[in-house]
Amino acid sequence: xxxxxxxxxxxxxxxxxxxxxxxxxxxxxxxxxxxxxxxxxxxxxxxxxxxxxxxxxxxxxxxxxxxxxxxxxxxxxxxxxxxxxxxxxxxxxxxxxxxxxxxxxxxxxxxxxxxxxxxxxxxxxxxxxxxxxxxxxxxxxxxx
Length: 144
Hints:
The protein is mainly α. The protein has helices at 2-21, 25-85, 89-109, 115-130, 132-139. The chain is rod-shaped, with a radius of gyration of 30 Å.
């Protein structure tokens, strides 16, 4: 695979050299077009073989993460809704507080936060100061 790139680079350099040293105008433009095509093909093949697979992997991981996040949010919402419908408000509050505190701890431990995450962290700090359920959950040790 690398030999193919070396050969392509050599052909490109030859085309550029031939273009520079050619005398005729027609020959000059023909070789310039050939050099341009070789350069574009080499760049496309390099990107296709090295960068596109990494991009596909990164995007696939991100899409799977978003789907898992949506699944988790739906599962928690459904569980809490069922508890509220059964009249178990204390359990529902506890479950929601547990989820909020788990994410809060994750944000606290993260070194690089986006501006939205920092804003959410500030909001959670204010909410913890007001909420007894969140304070209680935050005092409990981290689950393994």
